[in-house]
User: Fold these one by one.
Assistant:
Number 1:
Amino acid sequence: MIITCPQCNFSKTVDPAEIPDRPVKVHCPKCGEAFAFDKAQLRNDTASGRPVPATPEQISCPACGLIQTGGERCHGCGVIYTKLKARQAGSGMGQVNQAMGNGSAELPCDAADPTPGLLPKAGFWIRVVAYVLDFLLLWTVEYLLSLLIGLTVGLLGLSVEGDPSIEVVIWLFGAALSIGYAVFFTGYCGQTPGKMALRIKVIRTDGSPLGYGRAALREVLGKFISGILLGIGYLMVAFDSQKQGLHDKIADTYVIKLSQ
């Protein structure tokens, strides 16, 4: 049986016995695109004498992006298109659709009821690397601002060294900057620059956007509790089935991997 990629027309002969009698997800070895292939439908069309188009009309699933022939539901994730549209209209997911257009987000998908619980989650180490990237960026900004503050204080004829009040001001400024950085980026788009670089994102467990209030709950209170428990709240990410830390559970959030 010959399988042809609808994107680049690359063809390969495959033993029919190795292909299940149901729609399957195929990755083209040449262009890398994923598409759906239905052996049973192809066999039925051939047996009935109906013409089988070499490159049938293809659509991209709005939930998982799988390229496939048209139908009522996705062959890859199983989402029913009419239900997905109704869910989007009822929950104000238009901005997520716009984000999906440039490949920056994914919608949850399931055969009966799409849910974020099925999306791929970001594990412990990739989140550690994202944290390190954010830390280095923040450290650089804080260092430059500290130099600026020191220069300003020096021009005013004051001494930074040995003055506890100025040291406290600098420390409070750094703490406020760190908290504002995490809350702003997480509440605005679910991604700090470190998470953007690694293609991971924070979402709510019901799939809705976080907002600044939920982001503050996660980044301030949640992470404070995760930290004071000897870091156990962070280590939970490595062992939890949904890769949630204690701060994620407090704020009802997931950290998901975005499609490349």
Number 2:
Amino acid sequence: MILCGDEAALYLQATLQRVWAPLGQTPGIKADPGRNCTHFYGTLNLHTGGETLLCSPLMNAQVSALHLQQLLSEYPGVPLLLFWDRAPWHKGPAIRSVLSANPRLEIVWFPPASPELNPQEQVWKATREAVSHNHQYVKLPELAEAFESHLKTTAFPCSLLDKHDYHTLCMMSK
């Protein structure tokens, strides 16, 4: 199974996107002055377009290891190839421990500073456009629930495998 993972922070502050308004009338958007946020660990299944999610108040190596365990549970007995960026919380003893205990999980590191290569970035973009841009939520848990619901109920097709002719190569190797 080929997967791409990444993390995103969700703030209650509305991010603005294009809006319709009567000419000469600037639309008002309420903004939360606080910096409270929640973090999402998201992993895109490149075959199905489905998401595996973990919501957390923290983003660190221990939570990253917990998300890896979640992936292993979701795909039991299947070899997993995870494309991941080089974030500091993707390294350390907790991650090494999960990897050494689970040889069916292999990580391929994206090159430094190359988010455009990660299809999970497009998942975040689409979900922000659908849920968190110009939102009217007044409580972070409500916004986070809507964000999570969109991620769980939407398929995010990815052309990465087709772009590199993955399916043809797999058929040739059989």
Number 3:
Amino acid sequence: MSPASKSLVIDSSCILSLAFPEPNSQAVREVLRQLEREGVRMAAPSLWAYEVASVLRTGERRGRIDPALTASFLKGIAGLPIEIIHFPPERIFGHVLPLSREHNLTGYDAAYLQLALNEGADLATLDAELRTAATGAGVRVWPRSFLSG
């Protein structure tokens, strides 16, 4: 974490790596523990919860996870200190949409990047395109150790 930033925007890919077998799952667990120890403020745009729900439901339909494991996972992440930030439509249309155009991102990914820019925060993501866009926008992607793969 950069000394100037005690905030981290965390996207759904990081959290969802804990629900499904991913190469970076253990690294994400370690990072979350470290963030809690250091008292780093974590934030996400309000779409974060919808993305988590959508991916979990898709995983259920495809047989990658069952509803009981989904419930257990959700109970496990419920205690994470992630502040949910709501963007009004004028901010989405006036800032997120142009940012998505500028960096060729989905509106969803641009929302994470916009929040990091607004908050002067670092960004944690496992998404390669978002990582590249964040770096191009001057946002530090954190932590480099598990996000460089």
